[in-house]
Amino acid sequence: MPTGHHHTYVSQVFHGPLHAPQAHFGVGPAAPSTAARRATGRLDSEEIAAVLGPYVAPPCFAEAADALAADTVVALVGPPGSGKRSGAVALLKEVADSTAYVVLSPDTGLEQLAERTFDRGVGYVVLDRMNEDAEEGGARTADFDWRRVRDRVRGQGAHLVVTTVHEPGGPPSEAVRHVPWQPPDLREVLRVRLRAAGCDDGGRAAGEAAGLMPGGCLVAEVAAAAGRIARGEDPRAVWREYGSGAAQPVRDWFAADRSPREIAEVTTLAFATGTGPRAFEKLQRSLERSLEKAFGDLDPEGTPPDRRRSLARNALVAAEERTHGAPGRTVWVFAAPHFRPWVLEELWANHSSAFWDGVRGWLTALVRAHPDGELRNSVASGLALLARSAFDEVADCYLRPWARGEAGPEGEAMAAHVLGWVCLDETLAPAALTLVRGWAHGGDAALRSAAARAFGGQLGVLFPTDAVKRLWHLVHQGQGRPAVAGMACLFATLADGREDAGVVLDALVHRLRKQCATPVATRVKALTLDTVLAVLTVAEPRTGRPVVAALTERQPRLAAPLAELWAGVLRNRPVRQAALAALRDVLHALPAACRAPRAAAGRLGGALGAALPPDERPLLAAALGRDAGRRRRPDPAVLARFLTALHGAAAAPARTTAPLTSS
Asked: Whose CA, among 118, 125, 259, 376, lies 20 to 30 Å from 296?
């Protein structure tokens, strides 16, 4: 790729208000969670307090605690929503009184666990570990591998809790106990959370809300309901969306004898919710043509149906007046937001492959036709909701073909967009990670490019260490621009979401140091320099400013790794001019990006001065001093502060590395 090329990342991460009607992700009401948060890494004090503050232990807690105390490793086995995540942290606090808590990737295998380093006194959690023990031959070695993990953890003075939804693939491990996990007393969970939220009136409100709780609720649903009730919502209305009764209106509707046209109505709405009447009718007509193989001719007598009247009679459908946008705009939505995932579940359970082949053809044609942003979000969120019931269907019939280009460039972008929505569901994110990891290591170039795009978005925010590892693999394997751009995009999305972008910088510093060890020009060195430049030059899409500019103030500790990366590219002749241009752009952007631009410039100048050899500092200062005639020259006060800090920096401890200037 050409050096000095400025990348503008297109994020698939949802950090702010996102108009996606009736997406119903997680367990909340209609809107999805809009904050992308990492799922792995060290837990901070706020995260720990959020887990342990309202924690209620289930009956199986004591058994798991005994197993962890005896073996230093325990596995919790149970369905999604049973409280395994909070239970894992609570167990580590109870048994080990750990000084820190680290969540490892669900893609971590037993062999990797048996070979990694565990820090003494630290509690580790593997959440939603994927079950590679069930693969062919895995059951024969699982107990041996578990024994190696247990001995490793015990020998290094740590503790480990693994959670999974999968039963062991063979006989239960004798080395590590697998404890069947049960949910706690859900009414007590509700009472504790309401008291913590300040709803303490002698327990009357909590008692009334607990008495109305339906059966079949998940722990996370109770937590979400408690938050809504604490904010003043009517408990009766809240509980209608959770538990075993939430799906009953949908199931009752499907239990009746429904016409193919009615099925087409709710299918269209499941993927195009929030669409106006005229556009909806057009979409429904195109779906009905795609479903003729499954249903035959929906108009055998040739009489055009009145679709609008039919929709108005459908108990699952409602017309909604939108107050934003065009005045008086009416759109079709589900009568209750939580109906949407249940409709998709019923459609999947009740219709054959011929029906779903028709849906696939319809959605592929729709995506190929470049839908607007609102419809794109609706299609993507609908497929992500379908993935709860049929993950393989979504992966095999939509994600892989679209990523390979079956629906054109729009389909490639849509595959990444769907994956972003899938990752909003914490129960599906590990499966998405495993899927995209397979793409990254497979032989299909289009899927490798799609993996690079996915790891640069929501998936990479959730699993940043995995993303950096897989992106570097793609860079090293010669995937070229997509992989380099993916690394830059990951850096930008982490920075934009106030996550730790240092995971990218630290990995690149490590790679760059390795390349500094030899003066020989190699393909890997060129790829490393290109990747570093892409990260240093990636721009925010909203402002066009370098991401690095705001980061120097927002995450001050990153000044050192940023400076080391800049020192590496500034000392390399082929990319020196591009590196200088990038540095000028950052200094120019500091007044707009930072509240204290001169302090940020001083921080960056001091770090870069420490990273550069003393004889390189005057060369850099002279190059920046020749900017007087440039249109986009840095603010004089900002530049002066940077140069003062550059010259006054103490040299960093010398490393025995060859200069990069010869390559």
From this structure: 376
